[in-house]
Every structure is written in structure tokens, then in C-alpha cells.
Design goal:
The protein is of the alpha+beta class. 27% of the residues lie in helices and 17% in strands.
Length: 299
């Protein structure tokens, strides 16, 4: 294979800002093929009863169409990912997103990683454990088109705790009340891209999604790459028989999962040990941990 490699300027930008934009990562023909694959899945979802004006997300899309599988080792990004993580990697997640117009922000401010507890800090910083790459398949060349919103440098500097009202935008329950979610955070940037561009970012970079007051249904695909060793060590999976005769907390400890999150966001039912240990709901612990992470940012 021939790999596109990380340049010195890109490395400096990554270290400083926590993200990179790869212009023209996909050709117009590749974009057309991927858009067609997404539209087929969108139509299938609508036939099953989904409102076409609702947000549409589908996990594990590499299983759904070879157009998505062909992205896994695309030469325009894989070498860059390897330069950041090393070659001992695997694809952890693949998902498509279709964001219709909405006056509310599409996502709260957050870091990527597990919930309700984030990745642990090391000397006040979150290490690089995942690289996420998003391919944008529609032109997002103006503000408030459902843009990805990034806070450059926040993988090092953290999220600003002193900005009045800023924590509302981090709340899973309350972020939709902040219509212009980027305006409250100094330095936040709505990312504008053309169809075929890709954005890579650090798992600790704080990000959100702006409202979409355009007439564009934003289409994009996200893949997440991480270390090959992030899995069970002495078995590939736990036997169904052992899981069946275990209670809910033991099932969690045995790694039994019933959703697509891979344990990153198992929720109340998937992680009963959270409530048993904390004496609070999963979402309450999540809120507490976000606030703790912001307070503990490096000075």
C-alpha cells in the first residue's frame, strides 16, 4: 500500500489544536457512491416508520454496504492515523449520521470516550487513545448548517469552567436550551468543509454540533480507530451459559453488552454497578463527572 503520511506542519497543528482537516480526502465519485449508500439506508429506515425529519444515526455501517468497508483502509487517511497511533490499531466504530434542519444544537459539548466516567487523566491530560475521522458528504460551507464545532487546544487546556452558563452546554439533559452552542465558549469554531473533506480529532478534544437552520440534510460518516489491545484478554467473548446464570452486575463485569456502544456508553441498564456503587442514577453520575473533568482542567 501507498500511505499518505502526516507532514511536519500537520503534526504541529495536531499537537497545538487537536484536529486536522484533510481537504479532498474523497473524490466526487467516491462521495456520490457513499451518498447513495446512505440514502438507501435512510429510505429503509423510513419504511420502518422513522420520520424523515428526525436525526438518523446507524452504527456498524461497514456491515451494511461495501462502500463503507472500502473506507477502512483508504490511503488518503490511514497513514495519517498510523502516524498518530502506530500501526497496531483496529477500527473500533463506524457510523453514519444524517442531520436534518433543526433550530436546536445537534450535540452537547463533550469529549469522546467512555461514560459516565471519562478516560482517566495522566498528569492532568487525557492520553490519545482514539482517533476519530469524519468524512463530510455534503457542503457545509456556512455557519449553522449542523456544523461540527471544535474547541481548538482543549485536548491540552480543557474546557473553560469560568464562562457563565457554559456547563449548560455540556449537559445531556439541558444542552438543547443553548441554541447557539458555540457562541458561549471563547475560541469555539464551527468547522466549514466541502463534500469530500475529512476531519480528524483527538478523543480529548471538546466538541459539539451547531444547530442546522439551513435547508441541507447534513450527511457524514465517522470512523474511530484505536489500539488493537482494547478487548478482553483471556477470551474473545463470555459464554452465553455463564451470562445466563449471572445477575445483572455480574453480567456487566463479564462484559455482556446489549447495545452498539461497545461499553463506552452502556446506560443505566448496561452498567447497573454505577448505581449500586454511586447511589445515584447513571445520568446523575455522568453530569457529576463532566463537571469534575472541567474543574480539574490543567491551570
Amino acid at each position: 500500500m501507498t500511505f499518505t503520511r502526516l507532514t511536519r506542519a500537520q503534526r504541529e497543528r495536531w499537537d497545538r489544536d487537536g484536529y486536522l482537516i484533510l481537504e479532498n480526502a474523497l473524490s466526487a465519485a467516491e462521495v456520490d457512491v457513499l451518498v447513495g449508500a446512505i440514502e438507501l439506508l435512510d429510505e429503509e429506515s423510513q419504511r420502518k416508520g422513522r420520520d424523515p425529519n428526525e436525526y438518523f444515526m446507524m452504527p456498524n455501517v461497514i456491515e451494511r454496504d461495501d462502500a463503507f468497508l472500502d473506507l477502512i483502509d483508504h490511503p488518503n487517511h490511514l497513514g495519517v492515523v498510523i502516524d498518530l497511533l502506530g500501526a497496531n490499531i483496529q477500527l473500533i466504530a463506524s457510523e453514519l449520521m444524517l442531520r436534518p434542519p433543526t433550530p436546536e444544537p445537534g450535540s452537547r459539548w463533550h469529549e469522546d470516550g467512555p461514560k459516565p466516567y471519562p478516560f482517566p487523566h495522566a498528569n492532568g491530560l487525557t492520553p490519545l487513545l482514539h482517533v476519530k475521522i469524519g468524512w463530510f458528504l455534503t457542503d457545509i460551507n456556512e455557519q449553522d448548517m449542523g456544523n461540527l464545532v471544535l474547541l481548538p487546544g482543549s485536548h491540552v487546556n480543557g474546557f473553560p469552567a469560568a464562562v457563565p452558563g457554559s456547563w449548560t452546554g455540556t449537559s445531556p439533559a439541558r444542552f438543547r436550551a443553548v441554541a447557539e452552542i458555540d457562541k458561549q465558549i471563547p475560541g469555539a469554531r464551527q468547522i466549514t468543509v466541502n463534500a469530500g473533506d475529512a476531519v480528524l480529532f483527538h478523543n480529548a478534544l471538546w466538541h459539539s454540533v451547531a444547530r442546522n437552520i439551513s435547508n441541507v440534510r447534513r450527511k457524514n460518516i465517522y470512523y474511530v480507530y484505536g489500539p488493537l489491545w482494547t478487548r478482553l484478554i483471556d477470551r474473545q467473548e463470555t459464554s452465553p451459559e455463564l451470562i445466563a446464570r449471572s445477575n445483572a452486575i455480574r453480567q456487566q463485569l463479564l462484559g455482556a453488552l446489549d447495545d452498539h456502544s461497545g461499553g463506552l456508553h452502556p446506560g443505566e441498564q448496561g452498567a447497573p454497578l454505577v448505581r449500586a456503587f454511586e447511589r445515584k442514577s447513571y445520568e446523575e453520575v455522568w453530569e457529576d463527572q463532566v463537571a469534575k473533568r472541567i474543574r480539574e482542567r490543567p491551570s
